[in-house]
Design brief:
globular, single chain, 2 domains
């Protein structure tokens, strides 16, 4: 028996509108098929067919057991990221970020185009518009990946994506939640993001690298406070 709400063309057009709206940054997980079907008032089979078309066009990609994601499938040299998660810790991730991302910002200052830079400023606005911590983290990740992409170095982008995959694993969820509440750094983060993008827009590679380094050191300090359970450190944040 056919679902009377089956209309794959409607589902496809609504999904295209959703992707064009900017609601989901590249690499962001889309809602489930059930949630999309309810939002569009169509059958789940229609949504599934529409997603197959979009995947063939390279507008979304899917990973079994994880869901559907906006954008093209990233390079994945390590399928089993769980091995990396088990063998590392939060401080090691920050050590990698501190050595990788300033170099990416430096290259982005040399290679980003005007449209790329406008997109970075738009992502800062997206972060500021979010009223929940999870949404801010989502757009924050999109901004950092935009900078990495604009470095225009495929190997460095692969390294960034591997590092970012480790940070996105469920094992890190508790640590991220602790870091969110460890320090009230939203105004500082906004100013630091702005300094990074302003340096990239000014074609100042040294300034961009230093601004990124300062930003990551601030994040590292917040992470240390979040995981140290130091009452004195907590009091200094109030």
């Amino acid at each position: 028996m056919t679902d009377d709400r089956d209309n794959s063309n409607v589902a496809l057009e609504r999904l295209r509108e959703l992707l064009r709206s900017g609601r989901f940054a590249t690499g962001t997980r889309l809602p489930t098929e059930r949630a999309l079907a309810e939002e569009f008032d169509v059958g789940r089979r229609s949504v599934r067919r529409a997603l197959e078309v979009l995947e063939a066009e390279g507008l979304v990609w899917r990973r079994q057991g994880s869901g559907t994601f906006a954008g093209t499938r990233p390079a994945e040299p390590y399928e089993d990221v769980g091995v990396l998660v088990a063998g590392t810790d939060a401080m090691e991730v920050m050590e990698v970020r501190l050595r990788l991302e300033p170099q990416l910002a430096q290259l982005a200052a040399l290679r980003a185009g005007p449209a790329d830079i406008r997109g970075m400023y738009d992502l800062i606005a997206k972060i500021d518009e979010c009223t929940d911590a999870d949404g801010r983290e989502l757009w924050d990740g999109a901004l950092h990946r935009q900078i990495a992409r604009c470095a225009n170095n495929k190997l460095l982008l692969v390294l960034f994506d591997v590092m970012n995959r480790v940070r996105q694993e469920p094992a890190w969820q508790k640590i991220r939640e602790q870091a969110r509440s460890a320090a009230k750094t939203r105004p500082v983060t906004h100013d630091q993001h702005l300094a990074i993008i302003d340096a990239i827009a000014a074609r100042d590679p040294i300034g961009a690298a230093e601004a990124m380094r300062r930003h990551l050191l601030t994040l590292q300090e917040s992470l240390v406070r979040a995981t140290s359970h130091d009452p004195l450190a907590e009091r200094t944040d109030t």
